[in-house]
C-alpha cells in the first residue's frame, strides 16, 4: 500500500513541533490580560496615544484620542464686555495702575474679570441724612447771623458779639463767618463741592467751640454752658469730608463722593488749619484754661 504524501508531511510537522528544541513553545505570558496604549498611535488606529500635555489630559487628545480618565469641567469666566453696568463699587484684581484709573474715573465702575462686587447697601441714604442734619443746622444759624431771621442777631449784632469776645477785624469776620455758614450749609444739603463745604462749616465750628470755651473757666462740655453742640457739629462735618457725600448728591458721580482719598484729606486739613489760624491770629486767647 502506497502512503499519501500529504499524510507524511503532516506527520513530519507534528513530530517536529513535538520535538524539544524545535519551533515555538507556547507560554501563558504570550497574551497579557491588560494592554497599555503606546506612546504614539499606530497607523489606522484612533485614540491609542498617551497624552502629552495638560490640555490633552483635561480635554482629550487633539487627535481625537479617547482617554480612560474622568474629566472635570474647568470654570471659564466670561469677559468684562458681557457684563452689564452695575450701580455698585468694585474692587479690581488687576494691577495698581488699572486700579488707580478706576478710582479716578466713575465711568469705569464696571464688573470686570477678576473683580469683586461690593454693594453699598444703605450707606448713601445714611450719608444723605447726615448731610441734611449738619447742613440744615449750619444754614439756619448762618441766616440768623446774616439776615436776623428767627430772632437772630443779624450782622450788626454778630459783629458786636465778636468785638466783645476779643476778635480783631470783627466786621469782616462777621461777614465771612455768616456767609461761610450759609453757603457751607446749603452746599452740604445739595451735596455739591462737598469737601470744601464741610471744611467751611468745620472752620466756623472750631471758632464757635473756642468762643464757647473761653466764656466759662475750665473745660466745659455739657449744655447749656458747654461745647457739646459745637463739638458734635464740627466732628460730623469732618466725618462728611472723610466719607464723601454718597451717591445721593450732586457730587454723586465724582470720585470724592464714594472713594474719598488724598483730596478729601487735604480739605480736612484745610478746614482745621483755617479755623485754628483765624482764632490764633484774630483772637489769641487760650481756650483750654
Automatic annotation (TrEMBL):
Family to which the UniProt record says this protein belongs: Belongs to the DoxX family.
Species, as recorded: Rhodococcus opacus M213
Compositional bias ranges of the Low complexity kind: 8-19
Domain of life: Bacteria
Xref: InterPro entries: DoxX, DoxX-like_oxidoreductase
Membrane-spanning intervals of the chain: 186-211, 262-282
UniProt membrane topology term: Multi-pass membrane protein
Keyword Acetylation carried by entry: no
Region of interest (Disordered), ranges: 1-67
Subcellular location: Cell membrane
Sorted UniProt keywords: Cell membrane, Membrane, Transmembrane, Transmembrane helix
Name assigned to this protein: DoxX family protein
UniProt key word RNA-binding: no
GO CC term, one of those recorded: plasma membrane
Amino acid at each position: 500500500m502506497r502512503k499519501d504524501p500529504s499524510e507524511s508531511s503532516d506527520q513530519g510537522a507534528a513530530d517536529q513541533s513535538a520535538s524539544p528544541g524545535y519551533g515555538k513553545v507556547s507560554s501563558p505570558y504570550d497574551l497579557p490580560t491588560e494592554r497599555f496604549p503606546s506612546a504614539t498611535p499606530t497607523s489606522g488606529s484612533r485614540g491609542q496615544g498617551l497624552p502629552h500635555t495638560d490640555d490633552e489630559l483635561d480635554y482629550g487628545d487633539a487627535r481625537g484620542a479617547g482617554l480612560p480618565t474622568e474629566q472635570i469641567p474647568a470654570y471659564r469666566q466670561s469677559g468684562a464686555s458681557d457684563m452689564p453696568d452695575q450701580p455698585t463699587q468694585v474692587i479690581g484684581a488687576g494691577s495698581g495702575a488699572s486700579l488707580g484709573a478706576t478710582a479716578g474715573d466713575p465711568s469705569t465702575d464696571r464688573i470686570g474679570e477678576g473683580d469683586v462686587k461690593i454693594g453699598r447697601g444703605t450707606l448713601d441714604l445714611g450719608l444723605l441724612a447726615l448731610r441734611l442734619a449738619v447742613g440744615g443746622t449750619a444754614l439756619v444759624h448762618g441766616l440768623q447771623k446774616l439776615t436776623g431771621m428767627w430772632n437772630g442777631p443779624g450782622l450788626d449784632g454778630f459783629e458786636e458779639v465778636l468785638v466783645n469776645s476779643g476778635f480783631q477785624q470783627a466786621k469782616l469776620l462777621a461777614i465771612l463767618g455768616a456767609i461761610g455758614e450759609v453757603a457751607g450749609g446749603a452746599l452740604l444739603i445739595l451735596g455739591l463741592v462737598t469737601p470744601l463745604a464741610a471744611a467751611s462749616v468745620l472752620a466756623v465750628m472750631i471758632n464757635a467751640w473756642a468762643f464757647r470755651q473761653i466764656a466759662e473757666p475750665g473745660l466745659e462740655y455739657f449744655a447749656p454752658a458747654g461745647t457739646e453742640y459745637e463739638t458734635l457739629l464740627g466732628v460730623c462735618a469732618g466725618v462728611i469730608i472723610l466719607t464723601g457725600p454718597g451717591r445721593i448728591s450732586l457730587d454723586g458721580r465724582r470720585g470724592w463722593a464714594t472713594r474719598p482719598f488724598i483730596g478729601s484729606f487735604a480739605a480736612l486739613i484745610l478746614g482745621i488749619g483755617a479755623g485754628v489760624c483765624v482764632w490764633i491770629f484774630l483772637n489769641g486767647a487760650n481756650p483750654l484754661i
